[in-house]
């Protein structure tokens, strides 16, 4: 049997001066509520409030971090019974899948998934030994049992996790029925939507014309000109705001921004409505739509988020069989200084506007993003994202961003997760790494402990509320 | 009241083995004179030798590091009364500006500006509490009083700061009157100019033709052909040398180098004289002029400096109203391996030539610059520059450069500052970080303490004098 | 006299928690045999098994790391008597060269060459003081004497170094006579070849047509069509396998992969046979050949290695006089996400295929390579390469790779060296850095010491044997 592995000083530098300061800073922050301004939890779980099914469906099926690692080591997605396009599964015994997971759990040593899972098993589910092939079935039983209890119902976990507010991410055409149902249920958990119009602003979307049709039906008028489209998007944003949204989100390959002339954009839009898309049209149209979205944010006050740099569905074999979001998205080099120039020149000096930029290209932290965020009042820097939401990744983020952008042009932590049960684990890591970074500044006498205490609270709680107007 | 924050071991790793070695190394280096081979202090202050005006004009108006951070947090440049194009100011009470600065001084926690300012307040002005909104007016009074004393006159500060030599940066057309006046004054402070011909070598300069006219008047002959232009530049370099210059400086967007044929360059030059500039002309002409400058350096022995990668005046709103150097320059990706190839092939094997390369793109340290500097005898690597002239930035520089280029292909520290009073603060940080880096090597038994001692002195004093022939 | 500098805890963090864990992990790993799956030792030394000549020829002439640093500081290659094209030397007294080396040995402080050489002098040759100008001649004598002893014959050193297997790198046209001779000699040292067909797959190779002629003579049939060429390469791979090869190696400027149509590739190939090469032909042909090599690896099971990103022979002055591999190769930016896409889509899901990717562009570790290796079952990540095979370089590698790819998508260490005597030094550094990295994880309670012990053994011994099927 492996011993329990969650040390109370985990992730802190072992040097006592740093560790002591980090511990003190962390201890104050850990009691603060979780504010989760960006993520992908399915809001339906809070409508239904039913027990989660078995451990395999809770921990493996929805977590592409987990099965991409297993896949990289030669385990087939079929063996893990990952849902295929259309939701089809093979009906593999979930205990067999769990066993395979347990036997290969050592692969996650030194990875953020390992760190989060250890937390979930140990702290959320109270299991005090490390998962392996031998104890996998006992693990399965223990988790399974707990899942059936009142305490582990989604709404109870939400309260237990001390979540003050949780944002989902929702297509512009989403009717937000679950959000409405939660509101109407009288439950006081705060779940808000975020407006993500990618399907409508990306002409490479194969169902773009159908999505426009749906949009027409939602807004109740025909969309035959670009200005109709703009009007429709403004109405959808209005609806999202009514339903509690405070932000928009934009996933783009490159953050290129450029306002097209009325004639140019009308030509592209008409072509697209006819099903014709010229080679440069998607790039130009998306660049133009980012400008429009920024303009709308200046008007309606929704905080704008730009996530760029992911080369989606890199592995076509997996994509063809399994579809989107299956661990096959690979980052690529991303340029911000020139690409964001037009947007920042047009709207970046507006102190009421807020655009939060995320990157998968760490080289841009100190070279482009911190200098931009350290100058333009509208621009803030999102936390270390996706592959970089990790102990080393968050440490590099603070090391490369702070000296030029300071702490106050960053916006706290985003968990960005589909895995609801991992939320406290992820926030715990972020708080520990921020505490450790600040502890390092204290130990080197760059800032005082009392200054660090104020910053710690700001990084954990105040900055995120301010940036997302929550 | 906040306590004084300058710990004698500040910036050193808290691990005792590293800290003890670092302290020992630093203590020897701190007594060495300051050699400042590249910067932007106005030489006129040493001609006039008058008291600096009030604290706001000393610390805020000239320091774009300071007001870019305040601006990023929504404070208008108007509120800070930053001089606009043509020098116009709004006449805001400097005490009100200072108050705003004090209230927002926490924004500089963890930044190099914070660290330098703390030093200036604490050590230069003797104020033993940290600036904030409450003590801002008292701070103002204290600094103001000291500024009126004999001790704080520029020439006395120069001596008090233990500056052995200070280089300014001067346009090729500058007549160096202040340098002449200083020489003629009999004062023994060594202030030397550096030759920066950017206005003449960059065809994108909107006043290029006027600048050529000024050059004509300075050299006393008509510049109608490219060879006249070259001759004129050679004469200006000669004049700068006579006035004490030992280096040239070249600010370029990319470090592309390429020698044009006589016909090509003559064609571009004639066009430019007529006011016609084709799209590729500026890029090609600058590339060609870098080759010419390297050739001239081989002849006249001036050390060549290349600063590239800054996308200047990114924010046109600020640029239009305030002009150059207002905190709106943003770094961008820069390529050296291919761009410098032609220059290094032509002149890089010349052991009398010295070309010092600076970067804002830290990714090139280990990938391109250290391998180049670790091979070509003429090429040396400038220290961590601008946004990277910081505790973490200088640490990354040493970590990424040393293993391939060693210590002896680097050239010591540059403060590169307009803010005269910050010079000792900046050199102090650099010395501490070098001491700490070397202390880390000693603590890990990579080098011995006695080896580190020799290197420490070389990094602080000997290498810069050798590289710049000072 | 300088003291001996090899501390038993060298390279470990000085913090006691990390150091103690690192020491414990290292102590177990240090006894494991050396597996060297990629390098450039001349196999002839094991055929002849004669004493190495003098120290200068052993340490300086073959080591471009050493003389590039000396050259960068103004020492001419002529003064070091580095062999020129065709093997010509100037006959400089080797003792004079060694003296120059000793006087400048301080240049290697803080570099991997310094660390390796210290090990070789101290541990292999038993000299307990640091090389300098004063003791250089005594050093020379001591080493010279030892080289004449039985103990220092190549085969004895091979055993003494505890090398289990050593791979060389050999041109596709190489007849592997030395490998054959070793086998036939009855000596049980395992020296295996690796198949490197660059000369045949790179149309920029000036002797490409002659190399095709040699290939024809080796396979015994005329190569007039592309399919003949493919058949010939398959036969050569077969021969290499018979001679013990388990891997292929491909040095390319960019890792662009693309399968040409039959018509396209035939057209390029015919042109090349006629001596005509269009501008894009080399790039397209190499991209196509990487696809073919991957396909062949799926068939014959040879592990494929791709080394990209070196801009070879950057300094034409040196290249013209001295030829290849003279310290003038400079890394450049390299892109993997898009370039490897076609190869990984075609073969990357094949769990029997193994493609090991190396980089000189550290920015791709966390952005591209770890995400790719953490997904595609066929792809593994080679260790920190060339300029990055160093204390800081290997540390950055683990820091940037582990969280996304884990430990098990990496392949242990490669020494990649021409310098046989440096092999144990290089493996010792790699083991210490891995031990220290793992010790850091243990000290921060990210993994347990017992987990670290298992990983340490895998990184040192098991992963390399598995990846290279040794």
Attribute tags:
uronate isomerase, domain 2, chain A; TIM Barrel; 470 residues; 3-stranded parallel β-sheet; 11 strands; homotrimer; 4-stranded parallel β-sheet
Commentary on this structure:
By secondary structure, chain A is α/β, with parallel strands linked by helices. Chain A has 2 domains: 16-50 and 154-467, Metal-dependent hydrolases (TIM Barrel, Alpha-Beta Barrel); 51-152, uronate isomerase, domain 2, chain A (Orthogonal Bundle), CATH 1.10.2020.10. Chain A is 50% helix and 8% strand. Chain A has 21 helices and 11 strands. The first copy, chain A, has helices at 16-29, 44-48, 55-59, 64-72, 77-80, 94-103, 112-124, 136-147, 154-160, 177-185, 198-201, 208-219, 226-242, 262-273, 281-300, 316-322, 341-347, 363-373, 391-405, 423-443, 449-467; strands spanning 34-36, 163-167, 170-171, 191-192, 195-196, 247-252, 303-308, 310-311, 330-331, 355-358, 379-381. In chain A, the strands form 4 sheets. A 4-stranded parallel beta sheet of chain A has the order 6-7-10-11, with helices on one face. Chain A has a 3-stranded parallel beta sheet with strand order 1-2-4. In chain A, β10 (355-358), α18 (363-373) and β11 form a beta-alpha-beta unit. The mean pLDDT of chain A is 97.
The general outline of chain A is globular
How big a fraction of the residues of chain A is strand? 5-15%
**pLDDT under 50 segments of chain A (min length 5)?**
none
**Mean pLDDT across residues of chain A:** 97
Helix content of chain A: 40-55%
Please identify the top-level CATH class of the largest domain in chain A: Alpha Beta
The main sheet of chain A comes to: 4 strands, parallel
Number of domains of chain A: 2
What's the CATH superfamily of the largest domain in chain A, by name?
Answer: Metal-dependent hydrolases
Major sheet of chain A: order of its strands?
Answer: 6-7-10-11
Distance between the termini of chain A: 45 Å
